[in-house]
């Protein structure tokens, strides 16, 4: 199982970014995918998740209305569209899945929101 995030960058407050997580090594379309983030000095927190078919999503209150998770099962990729970014969104963002009780993480991608 491999998860590879990309798309992190330095962006000004109010800006947008789209993160990607390319998955391999498992039947991607069968599994829920989640996005987490970890800010400096803070615990890792879940940003949101998307069902295996993409028809259902859920988000943390802190990002609801600003972030959108989507997936392309044909490309084995899950996305995190982030709009109206705030300095408090600065963190390393990770994608995650659980297969047969085993938790898998990507290496993370840095998002910095600063003017």
Walk me through what this model shows.
The chain is mainly β. Helix content is about 0%, strand content about 50%. The protein contains no helices and eleven strands. Strand 9 (about 90-100) and strand 10 (about 100-105) form a beta hairpin.
For the residues shown, what is the average pLDDT?
97
Number of helical regions = 0
* Number of separate strands: 11
- Assess the beta-strand content as a share of residues: over 45%
Helix % is under 10%
Q: What descriptors fit this protein?
A:
single chain; 11 strands
Quick rundown:
With 115 residues, the protein is mostly beta strands. The protein contains no helices and 11 strands.
What topology emerges from the helices and strands here?
Layout: E1 2-6, E2 10-11, E3 17-24, E4 33-38, E5 45-50, E6 57-59, E7 67-72, E8 77-82, E9 91-99, E10 102-105, E11 109-113
Parallel strand pairs: 2-11
Antiparallel strand pairs: 1-3, 3-8, 4-5, 4-9, 5-6, 7-8, 9-10, 9-11
């Amino acid at each position: 199982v491999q998860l590879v995030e990309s798309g992190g960058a330095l962006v000004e407050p109010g800006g947008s970014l789209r993160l990607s997580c390319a998955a391999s090594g498992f039947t991607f379309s069968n599994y829920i995918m989640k996005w987490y983030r970890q800010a400096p000095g803070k615990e890792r927190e879940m940003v949101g998740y998307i069902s295996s078919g993409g028809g259902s999503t859920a988000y943390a209150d802190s990002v609801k209305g600003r972030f959108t998770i989507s997936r392309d099962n044909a490309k084995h990729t899950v996305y995190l569209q982030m709009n109206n970014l705030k300095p408090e969104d600065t963190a390393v963002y990770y994608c995650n899945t659980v297969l047969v009780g085993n938790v898998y993480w990507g290496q993370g991608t840095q998002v910095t929101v600063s003017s």
